[in-house]
Design goal:
Elements: E1 3-9, H1 14-38, H2 43-61, E2 64-73, E3 76-82, H3 97-111, E4 116-122, H4 131-136, H5 145-150, E5 162-167, H6 180-184, E6 192-196, E7 204-211, E8 215-217, E9 222-231, E10 239-246, E11 253-263, E12 266-276, E13 282-290, E14 303-311, E15 315-321, H7 326-337, E16 341-347, H8 370-377, E17 383-387, H9 400-408, E18 412-416, E19 447-448, E20 455-456, H10 458-462, H11 467-473, E21 483-484, E22 494-499, E23 513-521, E24 524-529, H12 536-539, H13 541-546, H14 549-562, E25 571-574, E26 579-580, E27 585-591, E28 597-605, E29 617-621, E30 627-631, E31 637-645, E32 648-658, H15 671-681, E33 685-686, E34 700-710, H16 714-734
Parallel strand pairs: 3-4, 3-5, 5-6, 6-33, 8-14, 15-16, 15-17, 17-18, 18-24, 26-32
Antiparallel strand pairs: 1-2, 2-34, 7-9, 9-12, 10-11, 10-13, 11-12, 13-14, 19-21, 20-22, 22-23, 23-24, 25-27, 27-30, 28-29, 28-31, 31-32
Helix pairs in contact: 1-2, 2-16, 11-14
């Protein structure tokens, strides 16, 4: 429909037009005042003067005739679709709430045949998105409707004719929907209709919330509060639950078992409070799981996987040395001088073969408590350092299996060389080889006494853990009096120092025997240092060049890497959004500046089997540029991604994937909130089967055509002004006013 109308306009601004009108009005006032002063009204003067002033004003304003066509356009209806993970919850039967949304969109197109539907998805992201983009993109846990209403674009034709919201009324984050009036404030004159994609609560018992610190201190207990919600008629009865820590390459650690009890203040809630302790530092995954219930419709929210950052108040180290040497003295002095280290050290000063000529009761030296240390207290240590000690003679070998499990469960192990270490100390057998980064030969010859100077490998030149040492000495290293004979590095290990004149034991190579080697095994790490003269970095010529600080720089790097200190990792690894099962998950790898090389990443489950998830993925970084890896649709569980560079030690990133996450903590819909919202805005709230009740908004008036033409030419207005002003002058002269 087209409507034509007429109006006057001027190419001058409104301010100038008003000023001209005031001047014309002033002319009338002055002419009237003159007539009253002379005692009679000179109508000829007033008429000719007024006509002259009016014609002059129209000549200035240049009025034009406007003709415009107005057409009735289809009403604009904005449909806001909740794209949060809540919409993957069941609605009725086997349908998801997202499926109900899709059918409602089809029905809206049928009910509003002449309306222009604009479908936008909202969640916890910054902007409104197209529905398909939102559903295929990163998962959205939150579903804040208030900010979504504020972000609706106004459009060229003004506000929308109506807004339709497709959700279940429950806010994923927060305790309640809030006041309906706060939502209406964004569009006070627009009706907000709502389609309730779910009305009835599901039979569900879910972990509603877990309150505990995000960062805790290793070996220190921390408090956890657990809330469980019952809905849809599920009996809210006390029941068991368990708490475990998921590990890589080892079975989970049982942290706590207890029962949730009814909340005396709320019959729909169960509660439990308890303390747990995590012993290993770094990012950890804690699993809290309720006992299964056959009547529970949504079983995935009976289990939560929670990331916890564990830091150390003090690093607890067990240090065992086989005999007193310069190297033992230097390392022990370094460990004791560091106030951040809680050192428990033992040095063997008397062997079983020594004849002390006195009964044991009269000796000041105590027996080496090997069984107590390696059986009872081993889990309490962050790292174990074994230097030049015969494992078989002092009873350590029988504890190799426990020491192996200790590393697989997240502990750190450093094996330092010497005449009684590596092959000579019996470390080639007994099960410890699985967590050592080098192969240990079993032959008679286990130590080479030729002096040599270690050399850096390509990996050693790039490794952050040796960065401080290289800054002090460059690639200069002290001369060593000999080295333990070791074999090739383990497949996943990295060699930082190597022997320039000896190849790995058992090989035909003439050089390259590993001397300083790093390895990741299960949830822990180990270091093999096949020399016993690093004290020269403190006391020798190299120590003089660095003021004695080079020795400390080396061992700070070794222990820092062992404990996964971010300063000594090859890259910073993080995830830009939470991992939700079935949705693509992205991991970002930010290498050190200047790194240009191939990057590989392998993702495996946090379990004893370390089952790989898909194939190894590859990327390339140039000058430290960001590398992204996408994991398509992982299943619920804990995972570890191992990132390797072509010239550097591996780094690890631990993460957990959940079904729904926080969005599924409360499965109840809130139809009352949607009814209140629609009522406050003048809209209608309907169930999906009642969409026909929604009133179709009227069309919007849109100007489709506009033409302007002058009422008279500019010269005509100017001529008229001249004529009436000249006539006014003649009349005034005739009457003697001039």
């Amino acid at each position: 429909m087209t409507i034509f109308g007429q109006q006057f306009s001027s190419d001058l601004g409104g301010t100038w037009a008003a000023l001209v009108a005031l001047l014309v009005l002033g002319t009338f006032v002055l002419l009237g005042a003159e007539g009253r002063r002379r005692g009679r009204v000179p109508w000829a003067h007033i008429v000719t003067g007024a006509l002259g002033a009016l014609a002059l004003a129209l000549a200035v304003l240049r009025p034009s005739l406007v003709r415009q066509g107005v057409q009735s356009a289809p009403a604009r209806v904005v449909v806001l679709v909740d794209a949060s993970e809540r919409m993957n919850l069941p609605a009725t039967g086997s349908s998801r709430r997202a499926d109900v949304q899709d059918r409602a969109l089809e029905d809206l197109a049928r009910v509003f045949p002449s309306a222009r539907l604009e479908v936008l998805a909202y969640g916890d992201h910054a902007n409104l998105e197209e529905l398909e983009v939102a559903r295929k993109g990163p998962p959205q846990i939150g579903n804040e409707l208030g900010p979504a209403l504020e972000k609706i674009p106004r459009g060229e034709s003004g506000p929308p004719g109506a807004i339709v919201v497709l959700t279940d009324g429950r806010v994923s984050r927060g305790s309640s929907f809030g006041r309906a009036e706060d939502y209406v404030a964004a569009w006070p004159e627009v009706p907000i209709h709502s389609v309730r994609v779910a009305d009835e609560p599901l039979r569900d018992r879910s972990i509603a919330s877990v309150r505990m610190p995000d960062v805790v201190v290793a070996h220190e207990p921390f408090h956890v509060d657990l809330d469980v919600r019952c809905s849809g008629g599920v009996p809210c009865q006390a029941g068991p639950f368990q708490v475990r820590e998921l590990l890589q390459g080892a079975p989970p650690i049982e942290l706590y078992q207890g029962r949730v009890e009814p909340d005396p203040k709320d019959a729909s809630m169960l509660k439990a409070s308890f303390d747990i302790t995590l012993d290993r530092s770094g990012p950890r995954i804690v699993e809290i799981a309720l006992a299964s219930d056959a009547s529970d419709v949504v079983k995935d929210n009976d289990r939560r996987l929670l990331p916890v950052g564990v830091r150390r108040d003090r690093l607890r180290i067990m240090y065992v040395a086989g005999r007193a040497t310069y190297d033992v003295r230097a390392l022990r002095t370094f460990l004791k001088s560091d106030r951040s280290i809680d050192l428990v050290g033992f040095m063997i000063l008397r062997t079983a073969l020594d004849d002390v000529m006195a009964p044991p009761s009269e000796l000041a030296l105590i027996p080496f408590p090997v069984d107590e240390l390696f059986s009872e207290h081993l889990p309490s240590f962050d790292a174990v350092v074994l230097q030049d000690i015969d494992a078989e003679e002092y009873g350590i070998r029988v504890h190799f299996s426990g020491l192996r499990d200790y590393v697989l469960r997240g502990g750190g192990l450093v094996l330092v060389g010497g005449p009684e270490s590596f092959g000579a100390g019996g470390y080639a057998e007994g099960g410890l080889a699985r967590v050592l980064p080098v192969q240990i030969p079993t032959g008679k010859k286990s130590f080479d006494l030729k002096p040599f100077v270690p050399r850096y490998t390509r990996v050693g030149r790039e490794a952050p853990m040796l960065g401080a040492l290289r800054e002090m000495l460059g690639e200069r290293l002290p001369e060593m009096a000999g080295a333990n004979l070791v074999g090739a590095a383990a497949p996943s290990a990295y060699v930082l120092w190597e022997h320039p004149g000896l190849g790995p034991a058992g090989s035909s190579e003439k050089s390259g025997m590993p001397l300083l080697t790093l390895g990741d095994f299960g949830d822990g790490r180990s270091v093999a240092l096949a020399v016993d003269a690093t004290h020269k970095l403190r006391f020798g010529p190299e120590g003089a060049l660095s003021g004695g600080r080079a020795h400390g720089a080396l061992w700070e790097g070794i222990l820092g890497w062992l404990m996964r200190d971010p300063r000594y990792e090859a890259a910073r690894i993080y995830a830009p959004w939470p991992c939700i099962s079935g949705r693509p998950f992205r991991i970002e790898v930010q290498p050190l500046p200047g790194v240009t090389e191939q990057v590989t990443m392998q993702v495996s489950e946090l379990s004893a089997t370390e089952r790989a998830v898909g194939a190894i993925r590859e990327g390339e970084t140039r000058d430290g540029s960001l590398v992204s890896f996408v994991i398509p649709g992982p299943k619920p569980g804990g995972y570890a991604s191992t990132v390797r560079f072509s010239s550097g030690p591996a780094s690890r990133f631990v993460f957990a994937c959940e079904a729904g996450g926080d969005a599924w903590a409360d499965t109840r819909p809130d139809p009352g909130a949607l009814k209140a919202l629609s009522s406050a805005s003048g809209g209608v709230s309907v169930a999906p089967s009642e969409i026909d009740r929604l009133p179709e908004p009227s069309g919007t008036k849109v100007i489709t055509e506009r033409t302007e033409s002058p009422v008279l030419p500019d010269a005509a207005w100017a001529g008229a002004a001249c004529f009436f002003l000249a006539l006014h002058w003649i009349v005034r002269r005739r009457d003697g006013y001039l």
